[in-house]
Inverse folding.
């Protein structure tokens, strides 16, 4: 008789696990059932801001594989609009609620993949029935916001609360849709995903675009009229608005896991081993935005919800369930984004992270250009490097620039992954041609500057 | 009494050495004299095609630092239009000819930097007084071609002989200037800097641009009228032309070095140790397009004339002459170029190189896109990886694509530099956001495909 794999969550991690398992084990060997509470499978959450802005059409465009494809090509029994509400590890079964038809079903499993994703952080003031307040995590969240923006009368003013990636990307998206946008940030500065000196460049660019940025400001409540949001109440008065988007980050969706007794780690996310097994829980796997993983630089467990990790982790789980061997060996915190034409890339530790992890370090900021200085279209590029003292080992890097900047982080990410020192990095053989780099690539210039800083510090 | 440093060649390597030495030793400690036979110091040879095309203005734009700057800011006695014609190692002096005023001078040295660069390969048929035939290596070469193109009657047809980087870039440049361009290549295909399957993509793009490409064709002579070139004689008839550009590569400029008894290596270029010292020749250093260096993947000495290496090598020599410590640890053959909007990057060994070096390997070609499939402006990208069998160690990589392709080679170059296996590479934490990459970056897709190929091969 066939074994049975149950997948909780039909997005990147869950469906990557399911498809990889199927590649290695056919239906006679492994039945696969996937429960998804939303309307979509395997979509790009990261693409939602670009759908909101109108840069890409959606939501179908954002779906890599729809339920029908999984059913037909992968022989996976995808149950849409089904929310798993309980996991019984002793009886080896899950209970799922049919959100459309009502009622519950129970399904037994031999193997279980927990891929319940993450949920947007929603402070007390946002836990309300007032309409027009949106978290941004799922494609359903995006669809709800799109509907709201297209409702009559059309919203003209938006407040984005929180200035991380999602907040910044949503601010741009709403601006591109023609709304007047205010970004409210509790800290001194939004874009804390990079250090303050680098974030300053992003903030300037956002202001130039016309985003109103209010910093050091906490939201305490909402104003409403007829059940619709009309304003955001802050310590400095009320900011009138027709829509509120929460950009306060996400938390791993672990309620169900905790109820079932799955172990959570220090980050609050589900613990997994390198093969994506939940420790001490035979036959149970977890992957994606609900799990924590090793940060290879700090050595600490971290929760980094990002599609690229979710895909890799799901694939690893699926290969292992399929009888193969694969490991997920951690992350180094690489991320890229853009604010209109301004590109931002980061990898490794920020100064604050490095300090928190106990490292002694130097940090340098090098100004350069994307192309040879004389080549048309050359634009400023700022590269920041953080290197351990005295070893010189790279701990982190950040890049901000107007073109060909974001993905330059990849070379730095691979250097970091391999534990290179900044001294070793000055020798790197990177691509050089006038349309693509100065004869000393910005990355090399920064590495040289870091070497100098290490020597000065020791002298 | 101050010591004396003589630098032969005032381009990237020589002047980087001079300036680095000056940073560490002042004039009272070290006099520096640099001889340059041409009209320019420290310029971008790689920028010449873009000057020819009119994309950048020149020649001043291409000069990073002019002689006056070296004199004033670095206290370096730069002697322009002086060609060193002899090195006497016993007497520790060089003889230089004044190409303008006539006559010769002798100058003693304590330290000598040999940075004489490279000279374009010029087959017997091109060793002629016929006007309108140009090698492309120095800014003076570029100036001569510019003058010719602007002469009256203006040349309308061009033949580029040889399809390496310079040939391909010059073909594009001449086309952009409005000439009808024929590229003559002796081999089956131009652009042999990448493997044939990848070169095919470049050739298609060049044909689409309107470059006439004639392959498998050797040039045997020139036709002339009134001392000006009128045609290129080949085995398949004469190709009429008003100008001939040689793109047959360069050879290290070693005549002077060989006369002086400096050791040449198997590549034909000057041998140096890791600190850029000429072995067994105290006080003599060499750097730039005239030296050979270690290819870190094949382990063989290679001659790779490229501005980025010249700068690094010159810097290393200068730091060491200045009393510091620096090494040049070799190259891995990274290079990028473009043909109009088509971008090409490579690093490490091609299939032919890998075979010649004795490696067993698999190679895979993966088709993907530069951005998320749904994101506007996404374009096809082809990534080829060559991995050692059975170890899986990356040996080489090539990328061809229409945008954001060339510099993606950097991540691969750093992976190669660090000896990563393709299996390890599938785990790399590269930058992901829809405007910059699919959720599986093209590099990761290729790595996965290479892993599969290794396993299939072993199965």
């Amino acid at each position: 008789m066939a074994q049975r794999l149950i997948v909780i969550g039909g997005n990147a991690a869950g469906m990557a696990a399911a498809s990889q398992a199927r590649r290695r084990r056919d239906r006679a060997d492994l039945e696969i059932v996937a429960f998804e509470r939303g309307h979509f499978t395997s979509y790009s959450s990261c693409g939602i801001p670009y759908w909101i802005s109108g840069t890409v059409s959606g939501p179908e465009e954002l779906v890599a594989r729809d339920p029908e494809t999984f059913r037909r090509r992968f022989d996976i029994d995808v149950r849409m609009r089904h929310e798993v509400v309980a996991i019984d590890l002793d009886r080896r079964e899950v209970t799922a609620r049919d959100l459309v038809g009502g009622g519950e079903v129970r399904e037994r499993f031999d193997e279980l993949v927990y891929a319940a994703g993450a949920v947007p952080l929603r402070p007390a003031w946002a836990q309300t029935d007032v309409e027009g307040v949106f978290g941004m995590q799922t494609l359903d969240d995006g669809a709800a916001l799109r509907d709201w923006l297209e409702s009559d009368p059309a919203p003209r003013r938006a407040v984005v609360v929180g200035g991380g990636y999602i907040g910044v990307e949503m601010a741009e998206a709403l601006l591109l849709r023609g709304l007047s946008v205010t970004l409210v940030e509790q800290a001194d500065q939004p874009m804390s995903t990079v250090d303050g000196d680098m974030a300053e460049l992003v903030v300037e660019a956002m202001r130039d675009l016309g985003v109103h940025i209010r910093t050091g400001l906490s939201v305490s409540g909402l104003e409403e009229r007829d059940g619709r949001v009309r304003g955001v109440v802050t310590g400095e008065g009320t900011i009138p608005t027709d829509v509120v988007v929460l950009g306060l980050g996400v938390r791993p969706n672990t309620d169900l896991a905790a109820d079932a007794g799955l172990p959570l780690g220090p980050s609050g996310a589900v613990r997994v081993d390198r093969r994506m097994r939940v420790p001490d829980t035979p036959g149970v796997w977890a992957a994606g935005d609900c799990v924590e993983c090793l940060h290879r630089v700090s050595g600490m467990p971290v929760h980094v919800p990002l599609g690229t990790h979710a895909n890799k982790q799901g694939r690893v789980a699926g290969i292992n369930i399929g009888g193969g061997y694969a490991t997920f060996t951690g992350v180094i915190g690489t991320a890229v984004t853009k604010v209109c034409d301004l590109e931002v890339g980061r990898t490794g530790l920020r100064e604050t992270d490095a300090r928190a992890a106990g490292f002694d370090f130097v940090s340098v900021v090098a100004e350069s250009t994307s192309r040879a200085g004389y080549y048309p279209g050359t634009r400023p590029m700022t590269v920041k490097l953080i290197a351990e003292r005295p070893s010189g080992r790279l701990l982190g890097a950040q890049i901000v620039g107007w073109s060909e900047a974001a993905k330059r982080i990849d070379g730095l990410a691979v250097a970091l992954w391999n534990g290179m020192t900044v001294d070793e990095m000055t020798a790197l053989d990177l691509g050089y041609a006038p349309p693509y780099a100065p004869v000393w690539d910005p990355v090399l210039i920064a590495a040289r500057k870091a070497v100098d800083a290490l020597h000065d510090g020791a002298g």
Notes: Chain A has three domains: 3-37+53-119+251-321, 122-248, 342-458. The radius of gyration of chain A is 23 Å. The first helix of chain A runs from residue 12 to 24.
